[in-house]
Design goal:
This protein is of the alpha/beta class. The chain has helices at residues 2-15, 31-34, 47-50, 55-64, 76-79, 89-100, 131-148, 173-178, 181-193, 209-224, 245-256, 285-293, 302-321, 364-375; strands spanning 40-45, 67-70, 104-112, 155-160, 198-203, 231-238, 261-269, 326-331. Bound molecules: ligand G3I.
């Protein structure tokens, strides 16, 4: 036994060039390793990525991320384009990808006013359906989809973007036809279909005080009615000058105080200037304006990149500060090439919101985030 230990220690000393290896912890070299024990670090996947066509992405995703969410393939227009006809082929591949790579898989999203199939709100004559019919359609969609992935999808964005920035209910067709109870019903149906799945409410601009209060009100009301809700997803479509970190922090704290998990979902930091509201009507201004709102077509200048990195680091410092409340931080995409931000809020721009460049090369921010996480105690 003694002989074995001496051999092991001698081997260690050799391997580490003389450093006492027993005292040395293995240094994290990927985001996945660095954030382990703090929160899941996730990414949204697009079709080419989960189908395995994008081999460069595949390498990055497997190595760097511990959680995935589908950018589009689990939205209702894709899963049930015609009433009663469900298409699970692509979503099945997405879920299998997560399982194969031991990732936390989130389903996005069951009930959202956008990307709904045409038939959902109308009958065969095009007339708006009754409350009862829409509830039944919601029940069938949720039961079928959540039931299909029972035990495999660990968390669902059950309702997405139902609250306006001022805290009132969005006047979506779900709201207009069913009333605010559509939210409660959606959570109940999801719970019936998979009692073990975590159920989330997910929305953007959650840092706005009005929206924060509206979401807190809505979640408290669900809890008072005995409805299971496990978490709140704060979409992170952020910019260089919004939101104020203090507002973001106030929302993290307010949501956690409801006794639910907080997740930063859909994180991407635009490096581009936000377009101005009213540009006037002078046609001669258009070219100058185009240049002004799409200024970095060939790459970010060093000073802009440095500011962008610092802003990302500031956000992650905040998330790490609240790692007792935050269970997952998910980027909305892998590489700048596929980011929706290249087309929003202005089409055809060249934006740089994600952690990997257009060729899937890790930007400098990746090692900075790894170091930041490593410096943060468990
Ligand atoms: O798949 C079709 C393709 O067949 C067709 O050729 C092509 C032509 O435009 O469109 C493709 O579908 C597009 C799809 O993205 C896949 O690229 C849709 O038109 C386009 O509308 C859709 O955009 C998605 C958007 O949600 C829809 O509202 C974005 O990729 C996706 O990033 C975005 O994600 C949302 C979250 O789900 C909720 N929160 C906000 C976030 C950003 O809008």
């Amino acid at each position: 036994m003694k002989l074995f230990i001496s051999i092991a220690v001698a081997g260690c000393l050799l391997m580490l060039g003389g450093e006492p290896c027993l005292a040395k912890e293995k240094k994290a070299t990927t985001l996945r390793e660095a954030f382990k024990g703090k929160f899941y670090i996730g990414t949204a996947l697009n079709r080419a990525q989960y189908m395995g066509y994008d081999t460069k992405a595949d390498e990055v995703v497997k190595k760097q991320f511990s959680a995935i969410v589908a950018e589009n393939c689990m939205k209702s227009e894709n899963l049930q384009p015609q009433e009663g006809k469900f298409f699970f082929d692509e979503a099945d591949k997405f879920v299998a990808y997560g399982e194969k790579n031991k990732m936390f898989v989130t389903g996005h999203t069951l009930i959202w006013h956008s990307q709904t199939p045409r038939w959902l709100f109308v009958d065969k004559d095009g007339k708006e359906v009754s409350r009862e019919v829409l509830i039944e359609r919601m029940r069938n969609h949720i039961h079928t989809v959540v039931g299909h992935y029972k035990g495999r999808i660990k968390g669902w964005d059950v309702v997405n973007e139902a609250i306006e920035d001022d805290g009132s209910f969005r006047k979506s067709r779900f709201y207009k036809i069913i009333g605010e109870d559509f939210i409660k019903l959606a959570f109940q149906f999801a719970h019936e279909a998979d009692p073990d799945a975590e159920l989330y409410y997910n929305d953007y601009s959650m840092y706005l005080p009005g929206k924060r209060e509206g979401v807190v009100r809505m979640v408290k009301s669900l809890q008072a009615q005995g409805v299971k809700i496990d978490g709140i997803g704060m979409q992170g479509h952020v910019g260089m000058d919004y939101p104020a970190l203090e507002d973001e922090e106030n929302s993290i704290v307010a949501f956690a105080s409801l006794g639910v998990k907080v997740m930063i979902t859909e994180l991407d930091l635009s490096a581009l200037p936000a377009p101005k509201g009213n540009r006037g009507a002078n046609i001669a201004d258009v070219a100058a304006y185009q240049e002004q709102i799409n200024p970095y077509k060939k790459g970010l200048p060093a000073n802009v990149e440095a500011a962008w990195e610092n802003r990302y680091l500031d956000f992650f410092k905040l998330f790490l500060k609240h790692k007792d409340k935050i269970t997952r931080v998910t980027l909305w995409g892998v590489s700048d090439k596929g980011s929706w931000k290249n087309n929003f809020p202005v089409r055809g721009r060249t934006d740089y919101p994600l952690l990997f460049d257009r060729d899937y090369k890790a930007k400098n921010i990746v090692s900075k985030l790894i170091n930041l996480a490593a410096q943060t105690k468990q």
